[in-house]
Amino acid sequence: MKKSILGFLFLSILSYGVSVVSPLLEISANGIVKDMVLHDKELILGTDSGVMQVYDYEQQSFAKTVTLPKYKDFAGDMIFPRVFSVDKIDNRYLLLSDSGKGGYVNLWLHENNVSTKLIKAEDKIAAIKARFIDKYHVLLGLLSNEAVLFDVQNKKEVFRVQLSPSKFSDFALNEDKSQAVYSCESGVLNMIDTKTGKILKILKGQNVDNVFKVDFKQGIVSAAGQDRRGALYDVASGKGEYIKGSFLIYATGLSPSAKKVAFAMDEHNNITIYDRTTKSKLLELKGQKSTLNTILFKDENTLFSSSDDSTVMMWKLN
Question: 203-239: string of b/e by CB count within 10 Å (b at 16+)?
Fold first, then answer.
């Protein structure tokens, strides 16, 4: 796959006193990237061309590709499914894809070069996101804003909890995967216990419309809002505040320490890095060509971003 090193730059140009950074690396996927996760040195991508790609960012090459079978669409044509959620634990990969049947999904477990269907369209589950909680359990976010814990071994639901009547948008896990924060079109965030499904806390007041994306690190939650607000919550106190953007904010990410937060703050698909505590702008990352959908910090000074195209970008902040 094509990749190009653009060179790490701190441009001397200042934008409102903020240094502008160009991408260190561009990674070309084989389709529009719908989801991505980091696992050790692997960047795992799910695309709309029926493929999960595993990119080794140290070797700067693709190490693995998993292609799902085509299905027949309403016109009778054979097409590849969209892989809109991926994950990995140990040597197990997880792929969530559409099925072409009434909006219901297929959930696949890929292990030892074999893909096994855990959930099929006939099970009538309309999930959007899936993440491993441990080797044998998967947390799902359903379009209906239900949280579901799925038992991989027994292929059955452990719990199903209705969080609100609003449409689901996203969820994010904390570091040990014991808690998850769910976002929806109302702007209200629900934090649950991932083992029981119990709602532990409701975070609200900072977003008044759909929260497209959330992140959850070190007891801090960031939320990317349709209302042009990049919200931040302290989970322990439940208190929050927001940074005002100039456009719909489609993506966010917190650094591992949660000392830095990234938001897609404008219509030019730029990423702004803030000091989370002071809310001061640190950097602006320019180069993304389409609407951002995912921002992932690898460490305090390295992050990856993807948008509604086939290019993933890697950035260095210092």
Answer: beebbeebbbbbbbbeebbbbbbbbbbbbbbebeeee
